[in-house]
Amino acid sequence: MTDNCLPSPSPRFLRGLQANLRYWQAQTAVINDDIIRNLDPDFPNVLQVVEMGLVLAETWPDTAVLILQCFFWVEGSGRVPQWQPLVEKCLAVMPTPDDWLEFRLLKQLGQFQRIQWDLDTAVNTFQQARVGAQTLQDDQAIAEIHMNLCQTLHRQHRYDDAQAAGVKALTLFTESQCRLKATTMQSLGHLAQEQGQYDLAETHFREALNLMRNCEITSITDITRTMDALAETHRAKKQYASAIQLYQEIADLLAATTEDEDKIRVNLNNSCYAQIARRLT
Fold first, then answer.
1. How do residues 44-54 score in pLDDT, each as one tens digit?
2. CB-based contact 186:209 (threshold 8 Å)
3. pTM (2 d.p.)
4. What is the DSSP string of 88-104?
5. Whole-angstrom Cα distance, residue 155 to residue 110?
6. Alpha-carbon dihedral sign for residues 120, 121, 124, 125
7. What are 211-268's pLDDT values in tens digits?
8. Where are the domains of the chain?
């Protein structure tokens, strides 16, 4: 908490800025591939509104909410380097204590740090967020932090610590948190895969897919990336026909998305494994 915010502006200016912030909150309340495509040309406008909203104590809460809602847009469009400083500033200029928003901002900051491979810093940020979640006495918030620590510690090849964090997250998530449980299960699959435990990895990936397919809200890329990981497990077990079948299903699912890098990788892998399978027959 700081006193960096400026004194109150004119009522007319404040009403206009608040109306702008709430307009963009409404536009970003739900984010998917189609919405990202439609909104993307306006990203500079959102950036400007957030920068202005962070200057004033009166608009800080609405600005914090907008920052949080834009996470998947920012991540999906590769704009994390532009957005992360806004998250940091939002935390720095918080005009009055708000434990819930502070927790969510710290969690988002840690995720952005992980995306950019600033892993030690991300771990420290998630540990700060875990303290906040414990202050809130919110088991689901605590579980989310363990899930994020699992993903981050995995990238550091701290397999035992990552495994413990993932298992802890699964014990805390309720049945309704199927998407987050699926994400955690996927992380445990990657841990097993990298340690050569392919049968265990396959089990985790299949459990993750079952959870995702039963979720009311999930994304195509969540499903296809888990299918991709499962295909890689089949490849490691030399089950090339199963891997090829999965890649064909993935390509069909990705056809209507904007995930061009995923499409290229899947097509290359599919072609490669098809050639291997032909040589073996």
1. 999 999 999 99
2. no
3. 0.85
4. HHHHHT-SS--HHHHHH
5. 13
6. negative
7. 998 887 677 888 888 999 999 999 999 998 898 889 888 888 887 765 556 666 666 6
8. 1-97
